[in-house]
Write a structure and sequence with these properties.
Growth Hormone, Chain: A, 4 domains, three-stranded mixed beta sheet, 23 helices, about 70% helix, disordered N terminus
Length: about 675
C-alpha cells in the first residue's frame, strides 16, 4: 500500500519565500547553461583542445540535463521537498568544485555533467513547488516570475561571465557558480517544506535508458547536422526517433510510467508547450549569435558584446511578473500572439541595423524584441499547465521542463549552425569577411523570424481550440442530457412537464446581482444576507460580466489560507487565519475569482434545456437572459426544477388512485351485468 503525505505552507508569507527559493533555483539552473560559453577561448588554450571539442561543455550539458528532467517527477513524489532540494543543489556544488580544480579537459567535462544533473532535476522541482503553493489568482504572476528567471539565467550569465573574465581566470566562473549554489542551498534548507503528495514511485530503468537514447540521439543529430558527418547526424536522429517510439510504447504498458503521457491528450497543453519552446528558442539563439557577430564582425570585446544585451535582459525580469499578472486578469488570447509579432518585427529590424555602423541602434532595437518574450514564455507555459488537472500537472511540469533543455539545445545548435554554414559558404565564394558574417547573422535572424510567425499561428489556433472544444462539449452534452431530460419530463407528467414549459415559468425573477467593482468580502456579505450561494456580476452598462459562487471563494481560500481547506476550520479556533483571509478578501475584486465565460440560458428555452445546461457543467444555478437585449432577467436553479419534477410526480400519484377506482367500478359493473345475464 502506498502512503500519502501532503503538507502545505502555513501562511502566504511562507509560500512567498518558497516561491522565491524556487525562482532562484530556476535562475541558477538556466544561468549555468551559458555561463561558461564566453570562457571557451581560454579553456581551449589551457587544455589544448579545439572548438569541436570545447563546445561539448555546452552541448553535453544540455543533453544530460534533458535526460534527467523526467527523473525529477519520480524523486519529487518520493522524497521530502527540502531534503531533495538540498541534495540536488549539493550535486551542483560538487560539480563546480570538480570543474574549478580540473587538471584536464575530461575532468572539467565530468564536473560540468554533474552540474547538468542538478540542472535537469532542479528546474522541474522548482516549477512543481510554485504550482503547489501559488494561490489560484496569482498563478499567472508567479509562473511569470519563474519564466523571467529562466529567461534571465542564460542571458545574464553571458554579461556576468564577460565581466569576470576581464579581471580573473576562467576557473573563477566555477567558484562563483559554486558559491551561488551554496546560497540557494541554505535558502532551501531554511524556507522549504514538503508540498508534494509522497509515496513510493519506482524509477523504471529501461524507460530511463530509452528516453536517454531518444533525447541524446535526436539532439545530437540536430547538433551534428551543421558540424559533422551528415550520415552520422541522420543515423543519430533515426536512432533517437526509434528509441522515442519504444519509450512511448513502454509508458503505455507499465503500471508506473516514468512519464505519464496523459498531458499530451490535451491539445491546448501541447500547443502551449510548443509556444513556450519557440519563445525559448528565440532567447537561446540570439544569446549565442549576437555575441559571436559583434565580436567577429565589429571587433568588440566580450564585455562590450555582453553589455549590448544587458538592458533588454534586465527589463525582461521586471516585465515577466507584469505579463503574468496580465495573463491572470485577461488571459493570453491577444498578448501571446502580439508578443510573437513584436519579436518578429524587431528582430528583423535588428538584422537590418546589423548592416550599419551604430551599435547603439542595434542594442536599442533588440530591447523590445527580447522584452516581448516575457509575453510569450511565461503566459504560454501557464496556458499549457492550466489545462491539466491536479493529477497530471506534475507530469505536465516534467514535459515543460524537458522542453526548456530541448529548446536550448536546438536553438543554440540551429542558430550557430546556420550562422557558421552561411558565413563559410559566402566566404568560400569570395565575399569579404564582414559581408560573410553579416550573411550568417541574417540567416539566424531569419530562423527566429520564422519561428515567431509559427508562434503567432499556434497562439491563434490554441485559443480557437479551447473555445471550439468548450462549445462542442457543451453541445454534445446538452444534446444527450436534453434528450434524457425530455423523455423523463414527458413520462413524469403530461399535465405539468410539457414541451411548452419554458424557463421563464420556473425562474426566480428577483435577481440579487453584484457589480464588477465590488470586493469578494462584499459578495460574501450579500450571500449571507440573502441566503444564496452565488450571484451574477453585472458591468457598468448592465451586461453580464461574470458569475461568482461560494465555491469560487472557497477554492481561493483553500489555496491562499490552508485552514479554509475545511469549511468548519474557522469555527474551531483558527481566528488568525480567519482574520487574514477576510483581510485579503476585502481587497480582492470579485472579477479576480469570477467565472468570466458564464453559461446562460434564454428565458424562452424549454425546461429540458435548463436541465441540460445545469447538468452539463454541474452547476447549481445559471443566469437567465432576455434573448433580445442579453440582459439578466432571472435565475434558474436545480432546486426549482426539482420542485417542478417532484410536484409533477406527486400529482400523477394523487390522480392514479382515482383513475384506478373508476376503472374498478367499471369492471365491477360489467361483471354484475354478465352475471345477471
Amino acid at each position: 500500500m502506498t502512503s500519502s503525505v501532503q503538507s502545505r505552507p502555513r501562511s502566504t508569507g511562507r509560500a512567498g519565500w518558497m516561491i522565491a527559493v524556487a525562482a532562484a533555483a530556476a535562475f541558477l539552473a538556466t544561468f549555468n547553461e551559458t555561463f561558461l560559453n564566453v570562457a571557451f577561448t581560454p579553456i581551449m588554450s589551457d587544455f589544448g583542445v579545439d572548438v569541436s571539442t570545447v563546445q561539448w561543455l555546452t552541448t553535453a550539458y544540455l543533453l544530460v540535463a534533458a535526460v534527467f528532467v523526467p527523473v525529477a517527477n519520480v524523486l519529487y513524489h518520493r522524497f521530502h521537498t527540502r531534503t531533495l532540494f538540498i541534495s540536488v543543489v549539493a550535486i551542483m556544488v560538487i560539480g563546480s568544485i570538480v570543474g574549478a580544480l580540473a587538471p584536464s579537459f575530461s575532468v572539467l567535462l565530468i564536473g560540468r555533467l554533474l552540474q547538468a544533473i542538478g540542472t535537469g532535476l532542479l528546474t522541474p522541482i522548482g516549477m512543481n513547488i510554485t504550482l503547489a503553493v501559488s494561490p489560484r489568482e496569482k498563478l499567472g504572476m508567479n509562473m511569470g516570475i519563474m519564466a523571467a528567471m529562466t529567461t534571465l539565467g542564460p542571458s545574464l550569465a553571458i554579461v556576468l561571465s564577460g565581466a569576470l573574465l576581464t579581471i580573473a581566470p576562467w576557473t573563477t566562473l566555477m567558484w562563483v557558480f559554486g558559491a551561488l549554489c551554496v546560497v540557494v542551498l541554505i535558502a532551501g534548507a531554511v524556507f522549504l517544506r514538503t508540498v508534494a503528495e509522497l509515496g513510493r514511485p519506482v524509477l523504471d530503468v529501461l524507460s530511463f535508458l530509452l528516453v536517454a537514447v531518444a533525447l541524446i540521439g535526436i539532439l545530437y543529430g540536430v547538433t551534428a547536422a551543421f558540424g559533422g558527418s551528415a550520415l552520422v547526424a541522420v543515423g543519430s536522429f533515426v536512432v533517437g526517433l526509434i528509441a522515442l517510439w519504444l519509450f512511448i510504447v513502454r509508458q503505455r504498458r507499465i503500471e508506473d510510467p516514468l512519464l505519464d503521457l496523459r498531458p499530451f491528450s490535451s491539445r491546448p497543453f501541447v500547443l502551449g508547450v510548443i509556444m513556450t519552446m519557440l519563445g525559448l528558442l528565440f532567447v537561446f539563439a540570439m544569446n549565442v549569435v549576437i555575441p559571436l557577430f559583434l565580436q567577429a564582425a565589429r571587433g568588440m570585446e566580450p564585455m562590450g558584446a555582453s553589455i549590448t544585451l544587458a538592458p533588454g535582459i534586465l527589463l525582461t525580469v521586471i516585465l515577466g511578473p507584469v505579463a503574468g499578472r496580465m495573463f491572470d486578469r485577461h488571459g493570453g488570447k491577444w498578448s501571446i500572439p502580439l508578443g510573437f509579432l513584436v519579436m518578429a518585427v524587431f528582430v528583423t529590424l535588428v538584422g537590418v541595423a546589423a548592416g550599419g555602423t551604430s551599435i547603439l541602434l542595434f542594442g536599442i532595437l533588440y530591447i523590445p524584441a527580447v522584452l516581448a518574450t516575457a509575453f510569450v514564455i511565461g503566459p504560454a507555459q501557464t496556458f499549457a499547465l492550466s489545462h491539466l488537472d491536479r493529477e497530471t500537472s506534475p507530469h505536465g511540469v516534467t514535459v515543460v521542463s524537458t522542453s526548456f533543455q530541448i529548446a536550448g539545445c536546438v536553438g543554440t545548435s540551429l542558430a550557430a549552425g546556420i550562422y557558421g554554414a552561411l558565413s563559410g559558404a559566402r566566404m568560400s565564394s569570395g565575399a569579404s569577411e564582414i559581408d560573410s558574417l553579416l550573411t550568417g547573422f541574417h540567416g539566424s535572424v531569419g530562423l527566429v523570424v520564422l519561428t515567431s510567425v509559427i508562434g503567432i499561428v499556434l497562439a491563434i489556433a490554441a485559443y480557437r481550440s479551447v473555445r471550439g472544444r468548450s462549445a462542442a462539449d457543451a453541445a454534445d452534452a446538452s444534446a444527450v442530457d436534453a434528450s434524457k431530460a425530455g423523455a423523463e419530463a414527458v413520462q413524469s407528467s403530461e399535465h405539468t412537464m410539457t414541451s411548452e414549459n419554458t424557463v421563464a415559468s420556473i425562474m426566480k425573477s428577483e435577481v440579487f446581482a453584484l457589480s464588477s467593482d465590488q470586493t469578494v468580502l462584499e459578495a460574501l456579505q450579500m450571500f449571507t444576507e440573502r441566503g444564496i450561494s452565488g450571484a451574477p456580476i453585472l458591468a457598468e452598462d448592465g451586461s453580464l460580466a461574470g458569475f461568482l459562487s461560494d465555491g469560487d471563494v472557497m477554492r481561493n481560500l483553500s489555496a491562499a489560507h490552508p485552514s479554509s481547506t475545511s469549511i468548519y476550520s474557522f469555527a474551531i479556533g483558527a481566528e488568525n487565519d480567519l482574520e487574514h483571509a477576510l483581510a485579503d478578501l476585502s481587497k480582492l475584486n470579485v472579477m479576480r475569482l469570477a467565472t468570466r465565460d458564464v453559461i446562460t440560458i434564454d428565458a424562452g428555452a424549454s425546461v429540458a434545456d435548463a436541465v441540460a445546461a445545469l447538468s452539463d457543467a454541474n452547476l447549481k444555478k445559471v443566469p437567465v437572459i432576455d434573448g433580445e437585449n442579453a440582459r439578466v432577467v432571472g435565475i434558474v436553479s436545480r432546486s426549482a426544477i426539482n420542485r417542478l419534477a417532484i410536484g409533477s410526480y406527486l400529482h400523477s400519484r394523487a390522480s392514479a388512485p382515482a383513475d384506478a377506482r373508476a376503472r374498478a367500478r367499471t369492471t365491477s359493473a360489467s361483471s354484475e351485468g354478465m352475471t345477471t345475464v
